[in-house]
Amino acid sequence: MKYMYDGLGILVLSLGISLTIQSGLGTSPFDALLVGLSEEVGLTVGSWEVLISVILLVCNAILTRKKPMLLGLVTAFLTGIGIDLWLFVVRNTIFLNTLLSKLICFGIGLVLIGLGTAIYLQTTFASTPIDHLTLIIRDLSKRTILFSRTLVYALFFVLAIIFKGPIGIGTLLTVCLGGMILHLLMPFVERYFLKM
User: 64 or 72: which carries more pLDDT confidence?
Assistant: First the structure.
């Protein structure tokens, strides 16, 4: 059952990422970095998800002074496949012509990212290295998940600018609201899992 919820969380998360990319308003800083690398260097967005995750896996091991959480690569790999599949679907089915439609697409995507992340983090199977980094910073700083997520987003925002990722109003909204949405959704998802 745990694996089913983990898969559901990744499916929802990757759909949310794809919708924010499709909106054309800018994506989360991490996803902007992935798109920027995809356009500047080559490979798919999902492939860069896995490659960057390998780097973060090493960084996380150094921060925690523990062995790398290799299961996190499984989650990153599945997320990468999900992003590429959902991007194929949304690029061929969702056409956004107005600012309102782009805002709606982005807003739904942002909420789905928070919901998907909250679901799969509750399964405690294996978080992606970026989400594990968020939890490490939360634990090391003894602050909220809102603080740590915002700090991680700020770091990748700078990297996305360097690699010419799609930075826009959506990126700023993600930096300001992404951590808050995850912070708000985590208790609801946690309560649901406790009932199970």
Answer: 64
Angle at alpha carbon of residue 129, lines to 33 and 74, rounded to 5°: 105
- Give dist(CA 56, CA 46) in Å, integer: 15
Alpha carbon distance 142, 180 (integer Å): 17
Which amino acid belongs to residue 195? K
One DSSP character per residue, the chain reads -HHHHHHHHHHHHHHHHHHHHHHTS---HHHHHHHHHHHHT-S-HHHHHHHHHHHHHHHHHHHHTS---THHHHHHHHHHHHHHHHHHHHHHH----SHHHHHHHHHHHHHHHHHHHHHHHHTTS---HHHHHHHHHHHHHT--HHHHHHHHHHHHHHHHHHTT---SHHHHHHHHHHHHHHHHHHHHHHHHHHH-
Contact indicator for 171, 28 with CB cutoff of 8 Å: yes
pLDDT at 21 over 90: yes
Are the C-beta atoms of residues 22 and 91 closer than 8 Å to each other?
yes
pLDDT digits 0-9 by tens, 166-189:
898 988 888 788 778 888 888 888
* Residue ranges covered by each domain of the chain: 2-195
Amino acid identity at 8: L
pLDDT tens digits, 84-105? 999 999 999 988 889 999 999 9
